[in-house]
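Reopening: structure tokens for the adenosine-5'-diphosphate complex, inputs below.
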Amino acid sequence: MSKKEKTAKPREAPKSGKSEKPLEVVIVSSEAGPWVKTGGLADVAGALSRAMAQAGSKVRLFIPLYKSIDRKKFKIPARGVKFSVPVSARIMEGSARVIRPSGGLEVWFIEQEQYFGREGVYLDPAGHDYPDNLERFAFFSRAVLEILMTSGRPPEIIHCNDWQTGLIPAYLKTIYAGVPFFAKTGSLITIHNMGYQGRFHPSQWHLLGISWDHFNPGGLESYGQINLLKAGLVYADIITTVSPTYAKEILEPDGGFGLDGLLRYREDRVHGVLNGIDTAEWNPATDKLIPSRFNYKDMRGKAECKAALCQELKLAPGEGPLLAVVSRLADGKGMELLAGCLESILAKGGRFVMLGSGEKELERRFLKIASSSGGRASVTIGYDERFSHRIQAGADIFLVPSRYEPCGLTQMYALAYGTAPLVRATGGLNDTVRQYDQATGEGNGFKFEKYSESALLSKAMEAMEFYLTNREKWNRMAGLGMQEDNSWIHSAKMYHKLYRLAAALSGK
Ligand code: ADP
Ligand code: GLC
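Re-run output (same inputs, fresh job):
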């Protein structure tokens, strides 16, 4: 799929999972599932690593060994390879612990007690960014390069993700520029969300180890601050983002969050590669986390999942559809729109289930709506992987009304579980959801354009009306949605091509 491609088409059936030439791939991420997850980045880093390995490449995935990672469950060894990294005037030591969860995949956990031996991943218990996040992720980024150099196998590509690893391309083109070991190593950075850039005060520059000459608009400086995402965007050989539509949106001021000028300057290096989903984890025919299993040929299990969910949540009985949200309650997710029109949706016969956490004001608003809904709405504040599966399986309509959404995964999970997505036409939501047309039977869900309460509400009304009046067509739409292929196979192939391109471009 090229970044020029306009809008959603179902993906074509893959020819084969094997790629032509296996590569030495290093993927670096601040989170990866199933080991540690705060959002979609984890799903992507974990699933893409497995998909690349399955396609034949040798993949080493690097993540920090946070305190929350279950050493016992994941059989992470107590000892590892020792290494040290200069951080400002100090030498910081750590160890790298390796596991091999499946053929072709190694996961390297970077252990460093002072940086990663604490409760949160990015935030303290009060929800504030850790003040030493620059230091933590500068250490992590440099540790990856130091460890690789002692491993004897130079990678053809280092695939970085988001600001936490944005320093790696910068290090490769500065401190490590003359190191023969990396002479043929290309770098690629994937932007998962322009809204998070890793901006820090210049007084922390000494922690990076990079010469101050690079603190300028052509380097790591942005609006007077150190910007770690920008570091990646300036120095990476290839830049990707997680959907074709978002690849265009980030070139505009609204989507670029201050970096659109730089992205336009590097536009020939920018590609949109749609995320896939892990079809082993998100498959209603085999999912052990849901009460009854089902597939598109036999949907009885889905009705059982809905009944069980309504009972579990003690929802008032009703004929109307069950609408659902599983989301971070954060800026960009469109939750303020939903809070504004949810009562009207309930009044028209909809019932509602939400699982989410984040901004306190939004949490309070949704809890209040639920408490005065007469049992028509259930709101759970928290993070619960298992519950999210039960919701996907039991709901009829899945809402993602985002103001912007780089890709979005939950709408694809919904499709796999026969739950119609209702989304705003932005980013990856635009690329994966096609408005249903009752006349032709084409389309897999519901899509509205304008970011407004009334546009969301009228789309919800349209979907509810369709559900109530034409269940046969509804079931056909859901069944076709379940058969769409949103697996990683296609996108892993695209990454494979881009890895080769980045390696060819390295040093140019
Ligand atoms: P983002 O990464 O911006 O949050 P995505 O749609 O890409 O959005 O990914 C969100 C991931 O996090 C999905 O796997 C979703 O199921 C999961 N998720 C979000 N909130 C919760 C929650 N409260 N409990 C369980 N899973 C959640
Ligand atoms: C980010 C984006 C989300 C995307 C995910 C994985 O968290 O907000 O849209 O699906 O990364 O790429």
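The domain at 11-276+489-505 is CATH 3.40.50.2000 (Rossmann fold). The longest helix spans residues 133-149. Marking as resolved unless the reporter disagrees.
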